[in-house]
Protein 1
Amino acid sequence: MATFVSRSAWGARAPKKTSSDFDPSRGGVAVHHTGDVRFAASSHSRCASQVRGIQNHHMDANGWDDIAYTYLVCVHGYVFEGRGVGVRTAANGTNDSNYRYYAVCGLVGGTSASYDTITDQLIDGFRTAIARLRSVGNAAAAITGHKSFLATECPGVLGRHMSAMEPGSGDGGDPTDPTDPPPGVPQWPGVLLHYPPVTTHSSARTWQQRMRDRGWTISVDGAYGEGSRRVCLAFQAEKGLSVDGVVGEKTWYASWNAPITATALRGDRVSEPGAAPNWPGVLFSWPPKTVHPAVRTWQRQMRDLGWDVGVNGAYDQRSREACRAFQKARGLTVDGVVGPATWYAAWYATS
Ligand SMILES: [Zn+2]
Ligand SMILES: [Zn+2]
């Protein structure tokens, strides 16, 4: 099951500019790979920094407006948003192909077969990306290799797997296949609900109603704004999803399929809403000290859990040490910074 990674989630720089001089209904999707070096990361924790590196290279060394690709897919099955839907690409090598084709790049390796790492998750990621480009990005049916436009080895060994990238092919057993939603569950609409800016879409209302039915305090107005995002963050943290505040395919289906009650760490059975205060939207870090009213809230909770922190409203070295130990104990990224995942983990068990 592929997971989309938004630009903010991988730390993208803003594009210098974007062009919508683009008509993929006259072309489709072009497949690329990263060339000439072993590239597939053994651990997914490295993939976001690889994508940032590609963006830096394209913008700073090549002088382009943004990372050239529409999406980038890693061997772990994550789909990183590059230029995204509706934006002209710079990867296909000719004006005509950049005008007519999206560009999706596999983070696999070089032209030597021994460099390429082809995994089922990678192919599934391509399938998911291409399904989205067709459903919301107006892409025509073609799936072709970069080398169909000009002389290049790209996409290397990946070119032999293009027929498997056709949406609907593959094992057919994926419960998140957009053509086959689980019974009683509305099909994921293929639209990412995110904020900012506010996402206004009929599916936002469907999701909000579902979350309200689950007991969350949320406006059902079809506009995914700050309040919706906070509910999303808390829900993702509670359910062990990646905590990015974006309702994508995984979060959408979890909103219907995940069990409704959570076990708070203090041992009470509690319903979902209100068990954790909303993440305040401020990262706590040291040095220098972060001073914020919510720091005290977090410190009190940590103290109640038995961690060695002072409850003083200032995120100091002692708080940071406790945070790092807590993150390590919970299997979170150990960076000593309290962001949304670490915040909610202090109130919710992760399993
Ligand atoms: Zn290419
Ligand atoms: Zn990865």
Note: Residues 290-345 form a domain with the Muramoyl-pentapeptide Carboxypeptidase; domain 1 fold (CATH 1.10.101.10).
Protein 2
Amino acid sequence: MELDFESAYQLLGATILAAQSTDKMINTITPALFARYPTPAALAEADPAELVPLVFKSGFYRNKAKSLIGMARALVAKHGGEVPRTLAELSALPGVGRKTANVILGSALGITEGVVVDTHVTRLAQRLGLTTETDAVKIEQDLMTVLPKDQWTPFAHRLIWHGRRVCMAKKPDCEHCVLAATCPSAGIAGTTVTAAATTKTKTAKMDRQAAARAKTDAKQKKTLKAAKKK
Ligand code: SF4
């Protein structure tokens, strides 16, 4: 986990801020943010005019400030000021989707309900041939099927770590990758090519070839039949 946090509340706030930003950037913002608003109750009472400058560097700061206050108010109003411990309750908080809920459960509360599927997990699961899906929920289901449950959280962290440092979106470093010997996308992954895309392309090509062969066979049979009649 590359976001700094000391409690589930802090990780929740940091994860909301991390959307469309980097963990490194968020780690420069959160110390002052949580010093000013140390509890959900304090954040629930925040004046947006005072909160916005604190989260400004994270981008989309107005929406994020709104989500932070909304999340804190929901914690106070519905959960006694505590972070809830189920996927359904967490996902219902403002600014929190299934991905963020899985992050909080797995990394701050030690509860495993699903697999975090972000942009890195999506790309790597496809390249490694663990899924052919593009939808996050379907990718999560595929990973939950192939992984032992006690690996759901650490495996996602490993993919994210690997995706940031080795298997980057545009220029994966297959030459120095420890997974190259078993990865079906080694040497061919790039801007758009993924194992799934490659498989789909190959299948479509094979289908076209089979259709062409069937057409030729039918034509030859017809010619043969006509010749026999003569
Ligand atoms: S071999 Fe290449 S495509 Fe496969 S995981 Fe490693 S860097 Fe990514």
Note: The chain has two domains: 8-107, 116-230.
